[in-house]
């Protein structure tokens, strides 16, 4: 078993209770929380439902960065609710325009050695500055704000040993794409990645943050870098050296598994459609025509990334057949580029400048044309996430992206004949926190416009559960498949409306939608059941992927494997996450089959198998066995019909 690691040191310093054995739940104290607007409204509504007068964390920040299109009043209604509830509950508020939560948090608030949970799956970005930073559902973040500890499975610690140094045009993004090619997006639930080795010192904090950010795509709990001289330099440049502590693994630290990555052997890589682990070298794709290049997102829009892009674009012109759009990750970065003239170089080269925020990463505009290739520096290329059905989205580094934008086709940036720009890290960043609203002593009124609904509540779990399989889906179903974002994002605070688009990507013209079928099952007095294969619920932390199915009467999800955050969200909203004891059973179940559970409340016990009875349309019956990973605490929540009831 691992010992002497940074991860263990942070867990030990925050340990509340549990068993330090891999896979067993441990509860840890949470120092900081973050929320963003698309998941935050529910989180604060839930916090209100808990009647907590003021947050109990050292620091909680509410960011607005996702929903900023303001098509109709819904987004702005959300923002006003968020700002007012932040003031009322002692939470700092970062308004639209200030930047993407993960980047701003890293720049202005992250502290090595502290714990952070955030209602966004890329919260592990904070691992770049030596935090144990974990993504969670909104309800878990609300509980942390209420002072409750957060439970994680005691991790298997995967040590990634970095040696050597990156070559010109090869980037931190390529390092994480390389790791995704090794570990893939499946099978890493419950692990934490810790980076060590001589190569660590060659990476700056923003480069490390690119790596920990996209660790989310591995499905691990989080990823952590040590806190060292690079960390001190970054904090000093953010005028926060007082927050620095050194935190490194012991010289004789042991990891549960070790993977070595030689940085000097890293080459430009691309994640091909439609999964972040579908990796090829950019060279292999050379010559493939590209219509759109997007640079930004919480993965790749630090000062260093955008300065490198600006220096490459200077006195050059983006290829006529390509649109290049750039969304700076924070106002700090945008302001610096504006002051030092680099923004002018970007604009002169023909790039379109987008608002500072998530923007096209979450399908908020810039959807590609039909049958065209889109190249992005983002972290997810799930099918349809761009807002275009049948999209072809590739994920690359800013280095590859800018080379491709100039050429109009895939090209290995090392071959474009341009000298790799040497970006000088600023000794001091532009520090301007004037947009952050600090909560005053006197809470004002909470602004609750008509589109802000209350979180729906579930009934207690019935003992006799007569279920109907409403949908059967395959492998790697992401929460984007379950709850689409893009144009629907503005309904996040309005569950009855948002529920209409559950599993919209599987709708067929002229046939009833999932929402209609599930509601019909619910209204007939039966429970809806979702059947899936491997890695169900990958990706976004959006708890709506549990809340909306719950609203439509879903009580059970049965799969070969369910991802960590989604599984926790199911429990929080009283849906039973079950795992087929025999994977072959999956093939025997069809949509509209009945699945009946007798004495379900009694059957749910930690470590015990659950029996169900499958009833086919012709009346044929068969017993099906399920396992689960539920702790006694999880079971209590499920029996009550969800955490809010409890
Ligand atoms: C994402 O990148 O998928 C999101 C949008 O940031 C989500 C959060 C959400 O769905 O609101 C995430 O990563 O958790
Ligand atoms: Fe925003 Fe994209 Fe990052 Fe999610 S992954 S927080 S949508 S920039």
Mean pLDDT: 97
**β-strand amount:** 15-25%
Number of domains: 3
The shape, in one word, is globular
What structural class is derived from the secondary structure elements? alpha/beta
Tell how many strands the DSSP assignment holds. Answer: 26
Q: Which spans of ≥5 residues are poorly predicted at pLDDT below 50?
A: none
Give keywords.
646 residues; alpha/beta; Aconitase, domain 3; Aconitase, domain 4; 3 domains; seven-stranded mixed β-barrel; five-stranded parallel beta sheet; 20 helices; 26 strands; 27% helix; globular; binds alpha-methylisocitric acid; binds iron/sulfur cluster
Short description:
The chain is α/β, with parallel strands linked by helices. The two termini are 36 Å apart.
Topology overview:
Layout: H1 6-14, E1 15-18, E2 25-28, E3 32-36, H2 37-49, E4 59-63, H3 74-89, E5 92-94, H4 101-109, E6 115-118, E7 132-135, H5 138-145, E8 150-153, E9 156-163, H6 172-183, E10 191-196, H7 205-214, E11 222-224, H8 229-237, E12 257-262, E13 269-271, E14 279-281, E15 292-296, H9 303-313, E16 323-327, H10 331-340, H11 342-348, E17 352-353, E18 373-376, E19 392-395, H12 398-407, E20 465-472, H13 479-482, H14 495-498, H15 514-523, E21 527-531, H16 544-551, E22 554-559, H17 564-572, E23 576-580, H18 585-588, E24 594-597, H19 600-603, E25 610-615, E26 621-627, H20 632-640
Parallel strand pairs: 3-4, 3-6, 4-5, 6-7, 9-10, 9-12, 10-11, 15-16, 15-18, 16-17, 18-19, 20-21, 21-22, 22-23
Antiparallel strand pairs: 1-2, 2-8, 13-14, 20-24, 23-26, 24-25, 25-26
Bound molecules: alpha-methylisocitric acid and iron/sulfur cluster (SF4).
């Amino acid at each position: 078993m691992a010992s002497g690691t940074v991860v263990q040191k942070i867990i030990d310093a925050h340990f509340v209770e549990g068993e330090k054995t891999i896979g067993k739940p441990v509860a840890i104290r949470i120092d900081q929380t973050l929320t963003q607007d698309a998941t935050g409204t529910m989180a604060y509504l839930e916090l209100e439902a808990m009647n907590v007068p003021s947050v109990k964390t050292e620091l909680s920040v509410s960011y607005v960065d996702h929903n900023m299109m303001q098509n109709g009043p819904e987004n702005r209604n959300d923002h006003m609710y968020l700002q007012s509830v932040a003031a009322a509950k002692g939470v700092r508020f970062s308004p639209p325009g200030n930047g993407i939560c993960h980047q701003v948090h890293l720049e202005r608030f992250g502290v090595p050695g502290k714990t952070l949970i955030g209602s966004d799956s890329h919260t592990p970005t904070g691992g770049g500055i030596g935090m144990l930073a974990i993504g969670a559902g909104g309800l878990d973040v609300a509980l942390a704000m209420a002072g409750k500890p957060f439970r994680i499975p005691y991790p298997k610690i995967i040590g990634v040993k970095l040696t050597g140094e990156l070559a010109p045009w090869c980037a931190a993004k390529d390092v994480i794409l390389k790791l995704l090619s090794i570990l893939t997006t499946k099978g890493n639930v419950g692990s934490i990645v810790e980076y060590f080795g001589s190569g660590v010192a060659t990476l700056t904090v923003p480069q490390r943050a690119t790596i920990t950010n996209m660790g989310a795509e591995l499905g691990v709990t989080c990823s952590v870098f040590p806190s060292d001289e690079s960390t001190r330099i970054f904090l000093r440049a953010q005028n926060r050296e007082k927050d620095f502590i050194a935190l490194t693994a012991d010289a004789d630290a042991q990891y549960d598994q070790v993977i070595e990555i030689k940085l000097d052997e890293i080459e430009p890589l691309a994640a091909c459609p439609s999964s972040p682990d579908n990796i090829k070298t950019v060279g292999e794709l050379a010559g493939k025509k590209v219509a759109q290049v997007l640079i930004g997102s919480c993965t790749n829009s630090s000062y260093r990334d955008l300065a490198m892009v600006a220096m490459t674009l200077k006195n050059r012109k983006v290829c006529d057949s390509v649109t290049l759009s750039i969304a700076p990750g924070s106002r700090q970065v945008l302001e610096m580029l504006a002051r030092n003239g680099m923004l002018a170089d970007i604009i002169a080269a023909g790039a379109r400048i987008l608002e500072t925020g998530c923007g096209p990463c979450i399908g908020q505009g810039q959807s590609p044309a039909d049958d065209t290739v889109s190249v992005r520096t983002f972290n997810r290329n799930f099918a349809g996430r761009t807002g275009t059905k049948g999209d072809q989205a590739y994920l690359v580094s800013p280095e590859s992206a800018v080379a491709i934008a100039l050429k109009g086709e895939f090209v290995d940036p090392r071959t474009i004949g341009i000298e790799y720009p040497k970006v000088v890290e600023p000794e001091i960043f532009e520090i301007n926190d004037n947009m952050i609203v600090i909560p005053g002593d006197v809470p004002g009124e909470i602004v609750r416009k008509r589109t802000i609904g209350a979180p729906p509540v579930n009934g207690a779990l019935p003992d006799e559960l007569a279920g109907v399989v409403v949908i059967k889906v395959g492998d790697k179903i992401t929460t984007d498949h379950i709850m689409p974002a893009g144009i629907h994002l503005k309904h996040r605070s309005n569950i009855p409306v948002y529920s209409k688009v559950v599993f919209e990507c599987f709708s067929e013209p002229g046939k009833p939608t999932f929402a209609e079928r599930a509601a019909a099952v619910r209204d007939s007095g039966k429970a809806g059941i979702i059947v899936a294969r491997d890695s169900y619920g990958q990706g976004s932390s959006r708890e709506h992927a549990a809340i909306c199915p719950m609203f439509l009467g879903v009580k059970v999800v049965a799969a070969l494997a369910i991802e960590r955050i989604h599984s926790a969200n199911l429990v929080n909203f009283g849906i039973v996450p079950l795992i087929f004891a025999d994977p072959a059973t999956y093939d025997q179940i069809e949509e509209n089959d009945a699945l009946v559970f007798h004495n379900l409340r009694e059957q749910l016990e930690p470590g015990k198998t659950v029996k169900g009875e499958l009833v086919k349309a012709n009346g044929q019956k068969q017993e099906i066995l399920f396992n689960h990973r539920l702790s006694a605490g999880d079971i209590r929540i499920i029996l009550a019909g969800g955490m809010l009831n409890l």
